[in-house]
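Researcher: Structure prediction, please.
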Amino acid sequence: MKIRDDILSYREMCDTENVQTLQRGMNFHLNNSYSVILMSQRSNAPYSDRVHEDGITIEYEGHDVIKKAYNHNPKYEDQPDLLSSGKLTQNGLFIKAVEKYKKEGKNPEIVKVYEKILPGVWSLKGFFELIDYKVVFDNGRNVFRFILRLSKSQKYERSLTKEEILHTRLIPTEVKKEVWKRDNGKCVLCSEKRNLHFDHDLPFSKGGTSLSVKNVRLLCIKHNLEKSAKIQ
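Model: Predicted structure follows.
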């Protein structure tokens, strides 16, 4: 399985999705091809998102009811799948998609996943299939946890560069953060700050690891493509 490891600013992420702003973490059917979720594994993240040990499965926590007043804390309430009007919340829409997949044999919902690495810095983790959900009792309330599996195809949209920068395993968030800081947010070969990607120095296919900071570096698209062309 292969994914892209593009690095984007918040503005670039919004422009990629052709929206003015991405204020919600869950965006069901943001366009006709896929949904979008924004995840974070940072220590101060408001939700408990994580990547399983297999490196290709994401467990994504559903979202809370909208804060209604300054003294209203949604963290004390069960996460809702319905609004008071009876309309489905984003949680409810994702749940309905899972049920169609499991009960009706529909194709799984395709979800494009972005992860917040640092303030203003996002990483495109790739396209995933929404395959399951569960309800978990956590800190005195019920929350949803959605299960997403890395899709075998990563071609649900046109590449902005006409070339695909491909990697073979999810690079852990902590590794990405350390690499970004170490390389000062620039290509290590030319100091370019745009169109960056997390690159395996020794390719995964040749025994390189995604788990070591020493084997991951920042490359611009030009040098990433040049390297890919030389790998036999």
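Model: The chain has two domains: 1-157, 166-232.
Researcher: Thanks, that helps.
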